Amino acid sequence: DGEVHINESKNGNTEMFWNPTSEVRRQRLKRHIVLFEEQTDFESERLWQHVTSAINKGDQHKATQEKFVLEEEQRNAARERRENGTEWKPLLFRHDATTNEWHYKYEDVRPWDPLNDIAQFEKNGILQTMERHLSPRITNHKTTCINNQIARHKRSAKDCRRRKASDQPSNHSQNTESSCSTPESVQELSDDDGKYLRFESLCAQCGKEMNHLKEIHSAVLSLQRAQQDIHR
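== OSBL5 protein ==
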């Protein structure tokens, strides 16, 4: 979101190549990074901090020295593993002996579904996709929680209808009707038949996840509207 210039080395002329407008700068995507103090020793920003600092200061000699120190540490660690017979087991990559190449274990090569996929993110090095609808990939905990809510709702509705149909004194009927009223804190969810069910709030964990999903959904819709404006 900054200015980019082209410098002609032959004649020393400088030409503006890119200068985004204030509107473009306002629409830039927010960069999400892990806080430095929360990063592990081998994450790039922490591992290369001294090299990065030297580059930012324009000290290429210092940057080269710091890079050499890191590489020597890696060589020494590899040498010690060979001497001790310790096998190196990568957490996120697998080695293909046929092609002698390394491949990311959790790569997602399925086509992007714009109607269901909201955002793709990385957590602990594992690529994950946030989806708009509840899918077969939903967690067992959330599935159990929702099923329990649906079953409780159906039982409550059945008991309510049974009580209303019975012959009771008028004052008792009024109490029955009030006891069968819909709770204020409810959410809607579609069951297997496509009918919308209203049920009480999910457990704290599921409720937090659903609220997070709504926030992401709202943000994505805003981005989609911006993209449509750009295309127009």
